[in-house]
Amino acid sequence: MDQSVHDFAVRQPRDEPWYRPAGNEVTLFEQCHNRGLAVMLKGPTGCGKTRFVEHMAWRLGRPLITIPCHDDLAASDLIGRYLIRHDGTVWQDGPLTRAVREGAICYLDEVVEARQDTVVVLHALTDYRRTLPIDKTGENVRAAAGFQLVVSYNPGYQRMLKDLKPSTRQRFVAMDLDFPTPEHEALIVQHESGVEPALAKGLVSLALRIRQLRDRGLAEVPSTRLLIAAGTLTLCGIPVREACYAAVVSPLSDEPSMVSTLRDLVNGTF
Ligand code: ADP
After folding, report:
1. Which residue numbers delimit the CbbQ/NirQ/NorQ C-terminal domain (predicted)?
2. Nearest to residue 51, comparing CAs of 223, 236, 237?
3. Which of 11, 51, 154 to mutate to test the pocket of ligand 1 (most atoms within 8 A of CB)?
4. Cβ of 11 below 6 Å from ligand 1
């Protein structure tokens, strides 16, 4: 069987996944959930989209099924397929079908990576029908109460190569989740890595400087996730500059002059 069928996780954490809201996103999401509206989370990689969905699923008491999208993802990977066994063929639900039957929140991460013909299977779930037609079995599965479709989308990434069709985009309530304000981001780095407030602030000020290079040849800017990784390394005894070279500079660029600029910014900050 195709490996991608297994490529999803069902989670129902006991402890609250910690999330620091930036605005009214928690209320907005709750209202969408209560009214069965599908949600699109827009924002750069590592800005907290996944954590937000995990938090909301916990808050709403729903199981969360996460599906990382990629360009090989076929409709059958979402819906399911017949498996050939020694005693005959059996139908196996895919992760989307399972979420629809169980009333789970189904999170398609980086949906723009999926092929158009795969994304189209979502359409009947995002309007008044709230059903998933399964051609192979002839079944029309009605979404159980609590089912909600959530997709994430990074508008900057590969925008020239891939984009979502307007007919798909207009089926979602879109929420913009950008990097948090510096004060919020420092709190997040501090909470997630366990570093002292002063170091968290230093890491955020480094990130702000690097993010200004976005228009000067830096394709991807550092995410909150990278700052947390740098902070975590310092707590393992790695000197802060080394931690930033490894966790922030190297992941962002291979280009020698850019690497040298980024290292200078690290040395100027710490
Ligand atoms: P994305 O899904 O947007 O790529 P993630 O949700 O994986 O990003 O965020 C990366 C990490 O940053 C998370 O694991 C979490 O530690 C931290 N993070 C980012 N934003 C927040 C936030 N608002 N509240 C709590 N943690 C956050």
Report:
1. 185-267
2. 223
3. 51
4. no
Q: Is the CB of 231 under 6 A from ligand 1?
A: no
3 state DSSP class of 197: helix
Considering just the CA atoms, what is the radius of gyration of the chain in Å? 21
Ligand 1 pocket residue status of 225, Cβ below 6 Å = yes
Q: Does any ligand 1 atom lie closer than 6 A to the CB of residue 66?
A: no
Q: What share of the chain is helix, strand, coil (3-state, %, to 5)?
A: 45, 15, 35
Q: How far is CA 65 from CA 4, 35, 61, in A?
A: 14, 19, 13
- Nearest-atom number in ligand 1 for the CA of 184 is 23
C-beta 47 within 6 A of ligand 1: yes
> Does residue 176 have its Cβ closer than 6 Å to ligand 1?
no
- Model-level pTM? 0.91
Q: How far is CA 232 from the centre of its chain?
A: 21
How far apart, in whole angstroms, are the C-alpha atoms of residue 189 and residue 53? 19
CA dist 71 and 69 (Å) reads 7
What is the ipTM score, two decimals? Answer: 0.99
